[in-house]
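INFO  loader      accepted 1 record
INFO  loader      residues=272
INFO  predictor   begin
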Amino acid sequence: MLFFSKTPVVALIKLSGIISPEGRIGSKNNLNLNDLSDSLIKAFTFKNVKAIALLVNSPGGSPVQSSLIANRIRELSLEKDLPVYCFIEDVAASGGYWLSCAADKIYAIESSIVGSIGVISSGFGAVEAIKKIGIERRVYTQGKNKGMLDPFLPERKEDIDQIKSIQKDLHEQFIEWIKKRRGKRIKASDDVVFNAGIWSGRKAKELGLVDEIGDYYNTMKKKFGKDVKFKDFSKKQSWFKQKFFSNSRGDDMIETVIKCIDEKIIWSKYGL
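INFO  predictor   done
INFO  writer      dumping tokens
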């Protein structure tokens, strides 16, 4: 048994899925601090654990949850004096790369997709559509900005300026985090690295976004010896959730379909 053995252990934590404030109906793999907190604590406090390996496969999502998760990983790493290694699988883009930077060292596969260091907000405008079917939009608010970016009303310049101001602030926070964590390892100019471009793992290594090419199994074996053991602390979906929330019914069905389409669009940007 691992608990009573002196064999070195590497704790595995899979960070796979879209980063979202809460688990969504129809989504099996959303990442947020609330769901990950217990797994992180168990991984960092397990007996004989020598390192934490983050297995990242995420196209991004909530900047707040990205920051919360990454900060918690750093806090536990410092508290327990344990090194953290990141292994990028298919994609670490946007918030996925934010999470990756919580590690002391980042690895990727040569064909991994890495980057997208930017901020995006998207939606649809339905002003002409509701005119054609004879619907009149009526909105009553207190506070002139309460109806900001209403998709059924014409766009206002002041609304666009405000959302772009928020995006600029978030982008600056993202850049500050990467510079804090990667420092002089970044080998390219800000204009190249921080323009929301995406690269293969091999190119990301040239730019300094990734330290080395490699997978967790072989890398950790080389670092901690051939006898090292791996223990997966990734959160498992409960039987109850699988049984009652994997198949939505009634009013939830439309919401489920829309959210699944949203997720498909996000993943498909990276060919997945």
